[in-house]
Amino acid sequence: MDFFKKEAEKSSNVKHHQFWRHDNKPIELWSNKVIQQKIDYVHNNPVEAGLVYNAEDYVYSSAIDYSGQKGLIDDVVVFRMFDI
């Protein structure tokens, strides 16, 4: 947590050690399609950054858990889509 605190202190838009930027907008996850879109977006960030070729190859990602394999962290809860 000290790392996050120090990084937050560097940012001019972060007050009182808040770790989230104040300009983020909440997104309602109102459908399976939207939920999957957001999960895919997060999992593809390391690919887009050129760190790995496949999302499942990024060590610190839960993408491997979503693919049915075992990731680095124990007890990852894989989000299951819900029926609307």
What can you tell me about this protein's structure?
The protein has 84 residues and is mostly helical. It has a domain at 26-66. 36% of the residues lie in helices and 0% in strands. The protein is built from 3 helices and no strands. The protein is globular.
Helix and strand topology:
Layout: H1 2-10, H2 32-48, H3 63-66
Distance between the termini: 37 Å
Question: Helices and strands, in N-to-C order?
Answer: HHH
Strand content: under 5%
| Number of DSSP E strands | 0
InterPro entries: Transposase_17_sf
Protein name: Transposase
In short:
The protein has 84 residues and is mainly α. Helices cover 36% and strands 0% of the residues.
Sum up the structure in keywords:
single chain, 84 residues, mainly alpha, 3 helices, 36% helix, globular, Transposase, Transposase_17_sf
